[in-house]
């Protein structure tokens, strides 16, 4: 029986997090196939480690997870080299990038299969079919090539999360000490990365999750989450939690149950949610969350323009008026709202595009005036292939196209695109991009993020003094003095590096 190598490509330059995606796949083959794990975040050169395994052990299957951006820089060259040296090994990719860009991935000729969404059932079923030379056309959540045709099998229903096998933390610990994954963050000195649900019940046209989950969501029960967190706390010393769910707060009942369970553990935690969902929570629920350790929540505010919100297919009831009222409510409950904005959405004319950018800048400053503790994260709009959405259709009309060759994705301009810093979109001029980036620099100077634990009081005060005139006057142009200090002090940007 063939052995499996599971690879987690490097995603950040510091603070490695528990590789939950790879562990979920590992859990699905535990006891069925032998496997090894290589984490690019923990290796200076993961390629050396990988090829040492391939030379010495009977590995027949190479699986990796891949998001857009930095992970491609290791995923692409390593997969290509494996195909050249070990052509008999089956190469299987999972994650947002291959699911959304399946054609370019499979046309590379060095990726054999894509796991399209959750892989806990798909991956072991595929391996068994390959081992026994059986057909795999009926395996759900699979994309592959048959001749020149791209085949997408049926989408499985989302699995009952409590029925899935427990993640093999002990097995991970045999490859890399789990304590090394519990890094110092704004939340705590040993922060646990945890994933408690899959999907999201909304269909935002700019979100990479939508094509994969199709407005579906399913989460673990509160008691199951608590059991896992308690284990990681007692066994490895975890004292804070980052919930990496696409939408942790879908169910108020689940959040309340979890809060009641976790509050006695005295752990600080963070998650992602929607403004219009959590705004429906009762005051009692919000107060309980705060008591139970919730200190910050990430929200997709996107824009202060209600018309653009409609084009984004946000769903729900989110509006500019609600965003204003909600940050005030968060101030009352003493939970920091982390509002992310997407500037530079498609417009009919350059003048309209610039007007939208100016309006969003003004709205962001208004939000900060209502609740100065609000964290602001700014992205430049980057197209996501959500077929049929009004916004993506408008993007295609401008002539925008994704790369047709997989290796083009690791060129400098497309890496920046994946980080939403260089959108490569025809309707945005250099002047518009500069305005967005310059405002972001001034904003981060006047309101440095609380999540940068390395930035002391003196540095924060100096940044605020130097940026005050620019912030209040609107003179954002070429803030070189602020950029120099942010580079010198290695200012941390949550939108790129997390906490």
Task: Give a written overview of the molecule.
With 499 residues, the chain is an alpha/beta fold. 42% of the residues lie in helices and 16% in strands. It is built from 21 helices and 15 strands. The protein has helices spanning 20-29, 46-56, 72-85, 96-100, 102-106, 122-131, 169-175, 210-213, 222-236, 252-262, 275-278, 283-291, 306-311, 320-333, 350-370, 390-397, 412-418, 430-446, 457-473, 480-488, 494-497; strands at residues 3-8, 35-39, 59-65, 90-94, 113-115, 142-146, 149-152, 191-194, 197-199, 217-219, 240-243, 268-273, 294-302, 336-343, 375-380. The strands form 3 sheets. The chain has a 7-stranded mixed sheet with strand order 2-1-3-4-5-6-7, with helices on both faces. A 6-stranded parallel sheet has the order 8-11-12-13-14-15. Strands 9-10 form a two-stranded antiparallel ribbon. Helix 9 (222-236) packs parallel to helix 10, helix 10 packs parallel to helix 12 and helix 18 packs across helix 19. The chain starts with a strand and ends with a helix.
């Amino acid at each position: 029986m063939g052995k499996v190598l599971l690879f987690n490509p490097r995603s950040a330059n510091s603070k490695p997090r528990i590789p939950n995606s790879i562990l979920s796949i590992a859990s699905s083959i535990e006891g069925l196939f032998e496997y090894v794990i290589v984490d690019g975040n923990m290796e200076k050169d993961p390629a050396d480690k990988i090829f040492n395994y391939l030379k010495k052990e009977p590995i027949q299957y190479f699986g990796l997870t891949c998001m857009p951006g930095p992970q491609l820089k290791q995923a692409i060259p390593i997969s290509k080299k494996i195909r050249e040296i070990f052509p008999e090994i089956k190469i299987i990719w999972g994650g947002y990038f291959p699911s959304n860009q399946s054609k370019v991935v499979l046309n590379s000729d060095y990726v054999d299969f894509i796991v399209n969404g959750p892989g806990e059932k798909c991956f072991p079923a595929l391996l068994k079919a390959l081992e026994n030379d059986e057909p795999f056309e009926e395996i759900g959540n699979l994309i592959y090539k048959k001749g020149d045709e791209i085949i997408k099998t049926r989408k499985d229903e989302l699995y009952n999360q409590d029925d899935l096998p427990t993640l093999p933390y002990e097995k991970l610990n045999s490859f890399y000490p789990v304590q090394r994954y519990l890094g110092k963050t704004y939340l705590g000195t040993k922060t646990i990365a945890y994933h408690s649900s899959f999907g999201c019940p909304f269909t935002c046209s700019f979100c990479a999750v939508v094509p994969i989950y199709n407005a579906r969501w399913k989460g673990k029960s509160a008691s199951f989450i608590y059991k896992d967190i308690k284990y990681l706390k007692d066994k490895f010393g975890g004292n804070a939690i980052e919930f990496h769910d696409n939408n942790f707060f879908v169910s108020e009942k689940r959040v309340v149950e979890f809060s009641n369970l976790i509050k006695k553990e005295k752990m600080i935690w963070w998650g992602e949610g929607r403004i219009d969902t959590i705004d429906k929570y009762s005051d009692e629920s919000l107060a309980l969350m705060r008591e139970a350790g919730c200190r910050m929540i990430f929200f997709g505010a996107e824009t202060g323009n209600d018309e653009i919100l409609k084009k984004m297919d946000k769903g729900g009831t989110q509006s500019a008026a609600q965003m204003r009222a909600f940050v005030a409510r968060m101030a009352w409950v003493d939970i920091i709202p982390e509002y992310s904005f997407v500037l530079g959405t498609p417009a009919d004319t350059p003048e309209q595009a610039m007007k939208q950018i100016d309006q969003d800048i003004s709205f962001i400053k208004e939000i900060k005036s209502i609740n100065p503790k609000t964290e602001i994260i700014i992205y430049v709009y980057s197209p996501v292939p959500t077929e049929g959405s009004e916004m993506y259709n408008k993007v295609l009309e401008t002539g925008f196209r994704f790369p047709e060759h997989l290796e083009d994705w690791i060129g400098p301009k497309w890496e920046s695109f994946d980080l939403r810093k260089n959108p490569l979109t025809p309707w945005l001029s250099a002047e518009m991009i500069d305005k967005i980036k310059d405002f972001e620099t001034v904003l981060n100077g006047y309101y440095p993020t609380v999540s940068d634990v390395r930035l002391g009081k003196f540095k924060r005060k100096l940044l605020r003094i130097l940026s005050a005139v620019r912030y209040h006057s609107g003179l954002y142009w070429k803030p070189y003095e602020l950029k120099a200090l942010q580079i010198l002090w290695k200012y941390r940007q949550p939108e790129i590096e997390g906490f």
